[in-house]
Structures are given as structure tokens and as C-alpha cells.
Amino acid sequence: MGTNTSELDQERQNLLLFIWRKRKVIGIVTAIACVASVVVSLLLTPQFKSTAIVFPAATNTVSFSEQRNAKAAAMDFGEEEQAEQLVQILASSRIRNRIVEQFDLLEHWEISKDDPNKKYKLGKAYDDHILFTRTRYGSIQIDVTDPDKEMAADIANKIVDLIDTVKNEMIRERTILAFEINKRKKEQLENDKKLLQLKLDTLSQIGVVPVEGRANLFQAYNESKNAEDRAFFKQQIDINLLHGAEYDGLQMQRDERIVKLTKFEDSYEQSESDANTNFNHKFVVESAVVADKKDKPKRMIIVLLATLGTFIFMVFALLLKDRISELRKAE
To answer: Which of 179, 264, 317, 326 is most solvent-facing, going by the fewest CB within 10 Å?
Structure first.
């Protein structure tokens, strides 16, 4: 153990002596790297970052069902599933293309429209400047970095605004079709009910009455005081005997349509609401504001890393050079 410690101390001393002997070369190159890193850091364009934070909503609809309302109210915050969905929507081309077009990011990021690789360069620049991350609290953080601090804030806030627009469009692509189907079904039920009611009215005009009233016809016939009344009630009885069964069948079908329409009302109102209402799908916790201090580059860190890296590189390079020279002499 003592021998190993002694050898380690000897190696350290040898290294320090080596560095001291090569101090001029190491110092000159390290100083040049330090100055160069300072110049480079000063030439780097300052980047400003604006941040917006949103929570996903738990539900994306106004519910007409008590069970659905019990499951998720409109005031509830979303959980992991809703947060993951929101991140996917934020990263989608639906939002990216609108942001690129509205803020003319091709020109802003100096990407030529004639460049055959413009889509690749645009996508890379977009990912470098705009970032969506889930926080440990379940919210979504939208970070936008740009040399123009006002544009960075505007882009972040516009992305927040587009969440509802894009998600409503995606929902409407499905809900409008469902609403049209429900609408046609409702219209069919209403037309069937009207047609059945029209037939019932036609039979009523010739004297057909509901089954409850037919017993009264026989009673009235029996209680008639003269032949004229008896003939009238006899005629009504014959008409009801002829068309009574048809009237009862039509009345039953009409009542069934009324029951179906009543039960169908909630489904129709739900589909109508989903198809025509613009819902709010997020809670804005923090809107983006214009940054008053640059986010990067961190010039001090750049200079320190460049200087330290150059120093370490020179030490190892000189050690390697001396080792190679020793090996050549030994040959």
C-alpha cells in the first residue's frame, strides 16, 4: 500500500514537472484559445427565450349525460393521457405550418425558398428554437428561443392560441360526420311521425276514433231515441269496425316514434354540441412575456470550457509527443 502511494506521488510530481517545463507552449496555446473563445462568444448572436405553460383540460365536450359529467367536469385539469395528447398536437405539422407561415420563419431563419433541403433545414431550425416538454406537475411547457425577443414571445403565445383551433378542427373532422348521421336519423323519425299522424288525421276525418271511444259509439247507438240517430251511430260503428285495426296500428307506430325521438334527443343534442361548439382544451397557467435578458450564449461558460479543454488537450498532446520520441529513440 505504501509502495503504491509513493509511486502515485512520484507520477504526480513528474506530471507537474512536465507541465512546468512545457509551461510556455501550454500557456501560449491556452491563452490563444482563451482569446479566440472570447472573440467567438462575442460574435455569437444572443438568443432570448420566452416560456408559456398550459394545463390540458380533462374533457373536450359539453356533456348532456349525467354519467359523463360525473366522469369529467369541464373545470377539471387533465392527467397524463391528456398531457401526452397535447404534446403530440403541439408537435404536429398542423401547428408548425401555421407558425412558419404566419411569422415567415423561412426568411427569418435565413433559409432560401429555392433550397432543395429547405424542409429539412426548416424542421431542424424549428426543433432547435421551439421545444415542448411535460413538467413533473403534469403541465406542458412551451419554450421559444429566438434572436428577436418580441417574436419569441409572440410565437409562444400564438402556439398557445392554436391549441384550441387545431384540436377543434381535429375533433370536428369526426363529430360533423356523426352529427350529420344523427341529424338524418332525427329527421327520418320526425317525418315518419308526421306521416303517421297525417294518416291518423285522415281516418279521424271519416269518423274513426281511438279504441277507448268505440265503446261509447255502441252505448250511444243503444241509447238513440230516433232512427236518424241510430242510422248515424250505425254508420260510425261500421266505419270503426272497418278501419279500427288500421287506426290502432298507426297509433301504435306513432307512439313508438315519439318514444324513440324522446330517447334520441340527448344523443342528437350531444352530437350537435360536439360538432358546432368551439371548446377550450387548455388552462393557461402562464403566458409568454418578452425576455429582458438573453438566455444564451453563456459567454463565461464558453470561455472557461474552451480554455480548460485546450489546456488539458495540450498537456496530453505534449505527453504523447514525448512518449513517441522516447519510443523512437529506444528502437
So the answer is: 326
109-158: per-residue pLDDT in tens? Answer: 888 888 888 889 888 989 989 999 888 888 889 999 888 888 999 999 99
The C-alpha cell at 257 is 316514434
Distance CA 20, CA 9 (A): 16
Q: What is the pLDDT of residues 257-281, one digit of tens each?
A: 888 887 777 777 777 777 776 777 7
**Domain regions of the chain by residue span:** 1-44+297-331, 181-276
Q: Is 145 helix (H, G, I), strand (E, B) or coil?
A: strand
Q: Choose among 172, 177, 167, 237: nearest CA to 207.
A: 237
SS3 content of the chain, % helix, strand, coil (to 5): 70, 10, 20
- Torsion angle, alpha carbons of 67, 71, 77, 83, to 10: -120
Residues 6+ apart with CB under 8 A from 103: 151, 154, 155, 158
Kindly give the interhelix angle for 118-129 and 93-102, rounded to the nearest 10 degrees: 90
Q: Write the DSSP symbol of residue 78.
A: P
Q: Are strands 282-286 and 140-146 parallel, antiparallel or unpaired?
A: unpaired
Q: Are 267 and 182 in contact (CB under 8 A)?
A: yes
CA dihedral 197, 199, 210, 204 (to 10 degrees): 110
CA pair distance 190, 260, nearest whole angstrom: 10
What DSSP line would sit under 46-74, residue for residue?
PBEEEEEEEEEBS-SS----HHHHHH--T
CA dihedral of 253, 258, 263, 265, whole degrees rounded to 10: 140
